[in-house]
Amino acid sequence: MYILVLCIVCASFFIFPTFFTTLYEPLQPSHAVNHLLFEMISIFVAMSIAIHSWITYGEAKAHFPILLAAAFFSVGILDTFHALTFSGMPLFFIESSSLTSTWFWILARLTESAILALVFLTPTITSRLNRNITFAIATVYSIILIAFIFVFHQDLPLLILEGTPTLFKNSLELITVFLHLFVIFHCLKHANKFNSIVIRNLYIIGAFSMVLSSIFFVRYQSVDAYLNMAGHLFKIIGYSMFFIVLFTVSVKAPFKNITRLHDRNRMMFNMLELGIIETNAKGAIHYVNMSAKELLQLPANSTEILLMSQFESKATIGEIYEEITSYTGEKIPVEIDRFPLIESKKIIGYFYTLRDLREAIENERLAKEKSVTDFEIETAAAVQKDFYSEISSGDQIGFVSYPFKRLNGDFYNILKQGSKTMVTIADISGKGIPAAIQTSLMIGAIEHVNLHHEKPDQFVEFINRMFSKYSKSEHFMTLFTMIYDEETRMLQYCSAGHEPSLLYNKGTNTFNFLETKGAAIGFFKEASYETKTIQLSKDDIVVLYTDGLIEDRGNLEGDLFEDMMDSIRHSDLTLSADTLSKHLITEVEKKRQGLIHDDRTVIVLKT
């Protein structure tokens, strides 16, 4: 787009010569002054490139070759002598003349174009040059050329003849055109080597402007014609493009990078849970990250100037935690650290970090509560352990119980009086301390049972009344109890909403489900239950269990009831009841597909 505009402007100078001649005619008498003004602008831009590159060498050397900057230093010097020796200027060492002035001009053009082409042709070599040495060489180079022209100017070939450029001069101009076209071609061919397409385009526009400038100096018919001034105008444009390149890579790009890093750091600060505040030396807040805004409860989009002293508080909590006072007046426990920001051995501000301790304090409180609860659970577990340690198993009756957690929510008991044995199993809703308390209630109730005068349903009704009286309404318990008479092999049993127990007859290889009607313990204060009686045979097996044994959430069928019966069928029934109970629970666990979520208890009775 810019190149197209330059081409249109350039073409207009040739398409409408009469218009531009008429336009420039009033300025023609002061052509020497106009020329000096344009050259001063060119010299200023060239020297700005050199000086700016010298100053920003550390930032710009990787993107703007120091050799090109030194070349513009020489160009600025040569252009200065070109302007001072131009026709119409006062004496400056030698008489001003178009011959001397034009030689300074053409040497400046050749220096700029040759070095520019060299920089693009050998970027690796030119990027390694030392700044001081390069500028020293450029200075010596300029002095030698100036001295040479001053001494031998009368012997040099003519570049201007009767106000018109000679063929030799035009040939030298065309060399600069060729070198600038090479630069343009290189920029287009190796576009991927530029860090920014803007930089590439600036080089192209600058080189193309220098091409157009040379075309004007080839075409003009008189040194004071408007085409001569148009050539100077495009030279200024070309120099300016190269200066913009330097400014972009040494000033604009670093500041843009600083802004990007600043924004990234702010974004990272906002991601931290730690509150961050930055103040000046007087305590005025400059920056607050999102965590600190939430902690201080600052209003959104507030432009109010805040001081850190507004939030600091000398009060402590138990001389352990510091406090800050939020914008709304709430006192908040925090861990606060302050770091001075030092520049040139002077404190220019402070950096604060704030850690909200409310959650930590709450966690500490919960940890203390948990330690108390853990102690209570350990105490309750010890009580359970002492109780169950008094229950013995053997060849005829065996049991095994695995709690899901520290406390067992399953209850089991074996009470023997003479030839009769009462076996009770229960699944108490809830775990932990409530289960331990209800276990104690069950123990106390069983201690008063007379197996020779009471039936199972009477015992269950008594348990229900006591449970309903001393337990909360949301707690309940399923229970199965049975009384077995070893002399008659008569079995009486009663269920309160519990899983049906299994009676396995080895001779017929069949199962009977032992169950009765009755609600779970605790559902109703006054509930009735029934006792059923069954005659057992020799070598029968009775299995009592809680639902935690057969429940399997990973099983599509929902439970392991059939697997439990298969395990009983294929077990060695000659084993003792104690060994058989452990074997049975092990075999059922092998079939489990999901995770364990409940207590598991099994009691085995062998006749």
UniProtKB/TrEMBL annotation:
Record's keyword annotation contains Transmembrane: yes
Transmembrane segments: 36-57, 64-83, 103-121, 133-152, 172-189, 201-220, 232-251
Top-level taxonomic group: Bacteria
Cross-referenced Pfam families: MASE3, SpoIIE
GO molecular function, one term: phosphatase activity
The PPM-type phosphatase domain, residue ranges: 392-607
Gene3D superfamilies according to UniProt: PPM-type phosphatase domain
Keywords, sorted A to Z: Hydrolase, Membrane, Transmembrane, Transmembrane helix
InterPro entries in the cross-refs: Bact_Sigma-Reg, MASE3, PPM-type-like_dom_sf, PPM-type_phosphatase-like_dom
Protein name: SpoIIE family protein phosphatase
Organism: Paenisporosarcina quisquiliarum
Highest classification ranks of the organism: Bacteria, Bacillati, Bacillota, Bacilli, Bacillales
